[in-house]
Amino acid sequence: SRTARSASVSITDNVRRALSGYEAVLLASRPLMAYFAERRLHPTLMEYPPIAGPILRAREAPAPGDPFRIAFFGGEHRRDLFVRVVFPAVERLARARPVEVVAAGIDISALAATGGVSVVRLPYEVSYGKALAELAARRVDALVHPTPPSRNNPYKNVNVVINARAIGAVPVVTNLPPYDTFGPNPPALLC
Length: 191
Hints:
Blueprint: H1 2-19, E1 25-27, H2 30-38, E2 45-47, E3 68-72, H3 76-93, E4 99-104, E5 117-122, H4 128-137, E6 142-145, H5 159-167, E7 170-173, E8 189-190
Parallel strand pairs: 1-2, 3-4, 3-6, 4-5, 6-7, 7-8
């Protein structure tokens, strides 16, 4: 409709105006760069993808008797999907072996410890590096990152792969953008 089109133009113009005082705009993914370029939101666009930090823990198999540790480090906006989809799968896995869920920075009231599943809540940590170090110290085996459907997903980066690498865990992600473009040998388990 004409009203929707003019609102879109107005938003685009507002974004251009807001960015006009900057020499360049740093963007974290190529699709996001293409989006900005197509709409001519700024004349100088620079790709600035996530940068891998140090490996804090090498990947290792759990020691005999240790639980399989699954971390959730994704924020409250991913919590509902974790509770509805991932946690029931964790409970099924716990029928075969002990599982420990390490939930970083979220409310865990909906994650009731059940037979074979223990739940550890790590308090919210403002420092990204410290939060990753705490997860690495917990010897996490899998870092789950459930992604709810969103029209913004194609523009996101795959920083969860970097986080998993840093803490020595296998990344487990939703088979939606941006992860569905990994190709035939993905660096993560897609579900």
